[in-house]
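Hello again,

I reread your note about wanting to compare the complex against the isolated chains. To keep things tidy I'm splitting this into two emails, and this first one only covers the full assembly. Below are the input lines as submitted, including protein chains and any nucleic acid or small-molecule components. They are followed by the predicted structure of everything together. The single-chain runs will come separately.
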Amino acid sequence: MKYVSTRGRAPEESFLGILRSGLAPDGGLYLPARYPHVAAAELARWRLLSYAELAAEVMARFADDVPREDLERLCQATYTAQTYGYGRPDSDAAQIAPLRWLADGLGLLELSNGPTLAFKDMAMQLLGALFEYVLGRDAAELNILGATSGDTGSAAEYAMRGRRGLRVFMLSPQGRMSAFQRAQMYSLADANIFNLAVDGTFDDCQDMVKAVSGDLGFKAAARIGTVNSINWARVAAQVVYYFRGYFAATASDDETVSFCVPSGNFGNIFAGWVARQMGLPVGRLILATNENNVLDDFFRSGRYRVRDAQETHITSSPSMDISKASNFERYVADIVGRDAAAVRELWWELDARGEFDLRPTPFWRRVQDSGFASGHSTHADRLATIRSVQRDSGVVIDPHTADGVKVARELRQPGEKIVCLETALPAKFEATIVEALGVVPARPAAYAGLEDRPQHCHAVPADAVFVKRYLAERIGLATTGGPAP
Ligand SMILES: *Cc1c(COP(=O)(O)O)cnc(C)c1O
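Full-complex prediction:
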């Protein structure tokens, strides 16, 4: 399997070659040169597999430079009932991603029963295992540098904690996360986890990561890697649960199933697109946004217009508060038939004007034929959906999942089976649940008293130079450039 950049001006790479990197050197995103295809007989066989076995099958299609038995071992160690048993007490943890029917034709795929109670654990835990595996093999080290507004940072820290060869330096905006999210990250006491509480906003944190990784000399010397949502291994690991959800929702492979996905950076739903390219009988891919409707706008109008910080709403489904969707370029590359010059031109236009419009191009028809539908939701919709799902099925869903369920109900066609992806558990977003239902949501036992545990973080200024020195000192890298912090 060869990986190529969407912009066509970077060398081809293997799976392990792109495992630790973010963007391709030409500024594009890596994609498999061709999607692997799963034949009908294979699909029938996959239906019978456990989650870990299925994960090994899917990953083997993308990571053909990792020996098969090693992949199997890593998947077996990752997808256990213990790691994915932090969720609802009545969930079947042995299933890893159990399906629950909310109503006729409307299912909920539980993806948030991992250690941080959000779907990001599904892929991030495997990424941690893969990193430790290659670092151990090469006797190497990797220092993950990231910025988080909440869910990604904690998923990364819980996936990497205690792993050999790895350190995590996570920048978070001081005082701007929920008490639960903050406690989840800062209560970790592992020696390889460094929480940096930045005196600034999430955008400041992200800019600092860009500035530090933009210093290529420093990046190489400090062996800096990323785990953001453009990481291909994360996308590949997310493909697995589309297969699992499809099998759980059907009795045979003649049926089609649509998926509804609360979306931000387009990573989760893009994995559904990949599953369909591989031959999974996916009906529609239904994209749900909150008030930050960049993507809903695109699928309705053909115009992709990114927003700036002032135009990005702070909402009650904060993990979807995005101004541009970092994985979207991969989908557009597929739509233009992998014409790298066309991708370059569109992103050049995006950089220059903040938008591009596919309507006057032949590509708009292809978008319309690509099986996507979309909708958006507001704060009032979320509250109403949380209430009605609780009333009708007894299940309490989180505000992000509520965005999905709202749109799925609105767009569902007669006879259509829609599986909604559950992207977080309600315990993570207590304030909105209290507003909707008047009661505090049940909290998984492992998180009782979380906010009372001792917290560990280092307060740092919004200054990339300071962060570089901080890192250099912690990893034992000699620098010239003033006193260490
Ligand atoms: C990350 C996240 C999303 C958005 O997923 P994308 O892959 O960025 O589209 C939605 N909901 C929750 C709870 C998340 O943590």
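For quick reference: The two ends are 44 Å apart (CA to CA).

B.
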